[in-house]
């Protein structure tokens, strides 16, 4: 079976052709550059960019792969969550194609896509703990099987990626801030004392807005080292994530850990979790950096699994901005 997968939930326009037998046939992705000067994604601009780019990207994908459009067995697409104006473009494209080809439509939850980004390289054993760290989410799930997700805890305010982006904006850096802060941090020292909110709490809730405020207070002094502040911020974030994962292992007894979402590309997070796996004998998995951030291959993987279970959507389905997993 071959699926075409469509992902437009935020600022990446991404399409993939994927075979249930042999995996990725081809994929194309365009990261929208228009948002860099605004310090965050501007929804209206994002929707315009998706509209402009999705058809040329589809043509490129067909050309790159030499795929005949009639070989597509079903169309997978991100239904939720995301920016509604952006989702609308991908959903309209997916519906139009499914209608024209007379093929089924398979709705995918974006977070389910992230969870299965790990499986693009090699499936891992169930059960596992999934730490989803992205621009919109910071959640811990116990994954018992495909479709069986138990929410363990998550952020009460900002998502980790969002706080990276906000801290970068405070420091006058461009969007997305995560990779920039990550690079700067490698040149700095953890010289500033920053809070680690809720780190000592027994539960699995997290909070990052206070940390961002502490960074703002330092920035406001006008006299600080960007490298050291980036490094101190990154240490605080990773300390909290590490502690919460250790707690999740204690509570569930599950030692398989998958770290996914845009922030899972972070170098310090990868380094510290590797150390953690050696120290505590955990199995820790990260997606390839290319599949950490939003992409259509992960949507295709989840789409295939959903289709196998008979999950399809009618042609009058509409995107939803924030449906829980
Ligand atoms: O998963 P993703 O592509 O989109 C959402 O679903 O939100 O995640 C994007 C987020 C952005 O906030 C970006 O700054 C962050 O991931 N990010 C990083 C790194 N690369 C991307 N954060 C920290 N370190 C990185 N290397
Ligand atoms: Zn995402």
Automatic annotation (TrEMBL):
The chain crosses the membrane at residues 74-94. GO terms for biological process: tRNA threonylcarbamoyladenosine modification. Keywords: Acyltransferase, Cytoplasm, Iron, Membrane, Metal-binding, Transferase, Transmembrane, Transmembrane helix, tRNA processing. It is found in: Cytoplasm. SUPFAM superfamilies: Actin-like ATPase domain. The keyword tRNA processing applies. GO terms for cellular component: cytoplasm. Its EC number is 2.3.1.234. One of its GO terms (molecular function) is tRNA N(6)-L-threonylcarbamoyladenine synthase activity. Fe cation binds at residues 110, 114, 294. Substrate binds at residues 132-136, 165, 178, 182, 266. Binds 1 Fe(2+) ion per subunit. The keyword Iron applies. Residues 24-301 form the Gcp-like domain. It catalyses: L-threonylcarbamoyladenylate + adenosine(37) in tRNA = N(6)-L-threonylcarbamoyladenosine(37) in tRNA + AMP + H(+). Pfam families: TsaD. Its cofactor is Fe(2+). InterPro entries: ATPase_NBD, Gcp-like_dom, KAE1/TsaD, Peptidase_M22_CS, TsaD. Required for the formation of a threonylcarbamoyl group on adenosine at position 37 (t(6)A37) in tRNAs that read codons beginning with adenine. Is involved in the transfer of the threonylcarbamoyl moiety of threonylcarbamoyl-AMP (TC-AMP) to the N6 group of A37, together with TsaE and TsaB. TsaD likely plays a direct catalytic role in this reaction. Belongs to the KAE1 / TsaD family. NCBIfam families: gcp_kae1, T6A_TsaD_YgjD. This is tRNA N6-adenosine threonylcarbamoyltransferase. It comes from Hydrogenobacter thermophilus (strain DSM 6534 / IAM 12695 / TK-6). The lineage of its organism: Bacteria, Pseudomonadati, Aquificota, Aquificia, Aquificales.
């Amino acid at each position: 079976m071959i699926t075409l997968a469509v992902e437009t939930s935020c600022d990446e326009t991404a399409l993939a052709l994927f075979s249930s037998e042999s995996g990725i046939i081809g994929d194309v992705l365009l990261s929208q550059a228009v948002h860099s000067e605004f310090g965050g994604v501007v929804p209206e601009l994002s929707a315009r960019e998706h509209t402009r780019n999705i058809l040329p990207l589809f043509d490129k994908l067909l050309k790159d792969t030499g795929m005949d459009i009639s070989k597509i067995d079903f169309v997978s697409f991100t239904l939720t969550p995301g920016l509604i104006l952006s989702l609308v473009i991908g959903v309209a494209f997916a519906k139009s194609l499914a209608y024209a080809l007379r093929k089924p439509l398979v709705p995918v939850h974006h977070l389910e896509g992230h969870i299965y980004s790990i499986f693009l390289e090699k499936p891992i054993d169930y059960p596992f703990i999934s730490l989803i760290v992205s621009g919109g989410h910071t959640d811990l799930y116990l994954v018992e099987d495909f479709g069986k997700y138990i929410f363990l805890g998550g952020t009460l305010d900002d998502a980790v990626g969002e706080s990276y982006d906000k801290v970068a904006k405070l420091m006058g850096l461009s969007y997305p801030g995560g990779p920039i802060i990550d690079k700067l941090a490698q040149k700095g020292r953890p010289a500033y004392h920053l809070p680690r909110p809720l780190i000592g709490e027994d539960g699995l809730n997290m909070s990052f807005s206070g940390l961002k405020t502490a960074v703002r207070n330092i920035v406001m002094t006008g006299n600080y080292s960007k490298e050291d502040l980036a490094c101190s911020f990154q240490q605080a974030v990773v300390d909290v994530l590490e502690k919460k994962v250790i707690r999740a292992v204690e509570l569930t007894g599950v030692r398989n850990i998958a770290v996914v979402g845009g922030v899972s590309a972070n170098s310090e997070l990868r380094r510290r979790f590797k150390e953690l796996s050696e120290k505590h004998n955990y199995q820790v998995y990260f997606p390839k950096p290319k599949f950490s951030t939003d992409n259509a291959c992960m949507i295709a993987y989840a789409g295939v699994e959903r289709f196998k279970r008979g999950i399809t959507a009618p042609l009058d389905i509409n995107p939803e901005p924030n449906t829980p997993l």
